[in-house]
Amino acid sequence: MGIADVIPGVSGGTIALIFNIYERLIAAIKSLSPKSVIEVLKSLKSFNKLISTLKDLDLLFLIILAAGIFSAVLSLSTIIPNLVFNYTEYTFGCFMGLIIPSIFIPWKMIKTKNTKTDIALVLGLALTITFSILMKSHVGSSTGDAGVGKAGIILFFSAVLAISAMILPGISGSFILMLLGQYLFVSGLIARLKVDLLGSSVNERKKMALALVENFSTLEVIILVGLFMTGCIIGILLMSRLIHFCLKKSHDVTMAFLTGMICSSVYVLWPYKQAMPEGTTMKDWLPKAPNIIPEMNSTTITSLVIFAVALIASSAFIIYGNKKANKEES
After folding, report:
1. What is the CA angle 145-150-154, rounded to 5?
2. How far apart are CA 273 and CA 271, in angstroms?
3. What does the pLDDT look like over 214-267, one tens digit per residue?
4. Which tens digits make up the pLDDT trace of 287-322?
5. Which residues pair with 105 in a beta bridge?
6. Quick one: which H or E segment has residue 90?
7. How far is CA 296 from CA 84, 89, 213, 289, 304, in A?
8. What is the pLDDT of residues 127-167, one digit of tens each?
9. Which of 21, 85, 117, 249 has the greatest count of CB atoms below 10 A from its CB?
10. Residue 241 near residue 108 (C-beta atoms within 8 A)
């Protein structure tokens, strides 16, 4: 599930459904409250009592899950930026192929399609594209246009939105970060922490990720990561409840809005960008590069093949998950 949350387009919620832990995950998240924290603190006097309390509240399950996600993030944080910068068409083509089949997950969950759901779909599409354009121009590069204060605010709210995707089958947290233009920037922050605090060696792959945050000091990077983590915590406690409330009160409209969000990935992750101007680095240009219709050449053909393979693989994965979920229900 941790690896799924790192790769845009593969939903951690879908993985949870496939492995039949989705309902347990939702129940565990909802159990998080000040009362549960107090219970854990009271049990700290005894290790056995602490373990027993964690099991009763199912917090041990969440801790293990969080550890897996954290490990995946550390492992892949430098690989993805390297692929995006050096193989943009291929990588974005793969991401888009992974994401497009996810459109049908929330759409199929809509029981009654009407004018309200149509408006919600268009609204989700328009708002996500607009929000992405406005936000990624501020933090998507390391030009110094955004100071630590402004970057921290954007990261905080991006984290709140992204973490809520963990409980939604079909939408991954990394996908939301990609939509908001923060995915590569967060990857750079993690790579910087690994080098500055853990003494990790710097290779060519990591240099690409580190270039994204080169204008921030180590202390500023720690502050930014702290704000991002704070946003994650607040998001999982508050936003997840809000989404479930919306699903309960207006299920079809909410699912239509989420479908619109996923549809916007075609614009955001379009693999073909305008050529980089001379004197500009890829890390500065890519987040704001305009989309273009590509010429048919070997690069375009290869990217289309990769897109098709990713599309088929993602579709097969989702179909398998649906079949497994249907068997569990019957």
Report:
1. 110
2. 6
3. 788 889 889 999 999 999 888 887 877 777 788 778 989 988 987 887 787 788
4. 677 889 999 999 999 999 999 999 999 888 888 877
5. none
6. helix 88-99
7. 21, 13, 35, 20, 10
8. 878 876 765 555 444 434 567 888 888 889 888 888 876 66
9. 117
10. no
Residue 230 and residue 157: Cα distance in Å, rounded?
Answer: 10
Amino acid at 13: G
Contacts of residue 143, Cβ cutoff 8 Å, sequence gap at least 6: 215, 284
What the block records as the tokens of 294 is 């590509």
176 token code pair: 């939301």
294: left (phi over 0), alpha (psi -120 to 50) or beta: beta
Amino acid at 236: I
* 176 contacts 12 by C-beta, under 8 angstroms: no
Structural element, H or E, at residue 322 = helix 298-329
- Is this structure's pTM higher than 0.70? no
Q: How far is 186 from 139, CA to CA, in rounded Å? A: 10
* DSSP element (H, E) containing 225: helix 218-234
